[in-house]
Amino acid sequence: MNQENAVLTLTENAAKMVRDLTSNTVDPEHAGLRIAARSAQDHELVVSLSEGPHDADEVIEVRGARVFLDREAASSLGDKALDAVETESGGVSFHVA
User: Distance between CA atoms of 51 and 21, rounded to whole angstroms?
Assistant: First the structure.
């Protein structure tokens, strides 16, 4: 697959977890999980809930789940799959493969 056209995919578990997390936001229809670089110089990615995409975000919608990627995240994760599991404490842990 051409890296330039590659898009992050979501497993069924990840899509369900994103839908569950965003269902309790002020505007669940537009909310999503945002993945972004911590800073312009940092390649570390941060995951957070967002009421909507930022201006330059790439928006991925899969099975009712919305994920927003900033430019750095979209470039880094384009050919990857996002998965999620529920932790023993009831939280969510996201993994990229």
Answer: 11
- What is the reported pTM? 0.89
CB atoms within 10 A of CB 94: 16
Residue 37 has pLDDT above 70, yes or no: yes
Measured distance CA(95)–CA(84) in Å, rounded: 6
Instruction: Write out the two tokens for 61.
Output: 């919608």
- Residue 22: other Cβ atoms inside 10 A: 21
CA angle (66, 42, 90) in 5-degree steps: 45
Question: Which residues pair with residue 37 across a beta bridge?
Answer: 45
User: Pairing mode, if any, of strands 65-69 and 32-37?
Assistant: parallel
- Residues 47/33/40/57 CA torsion (nearest 10 deg): 170
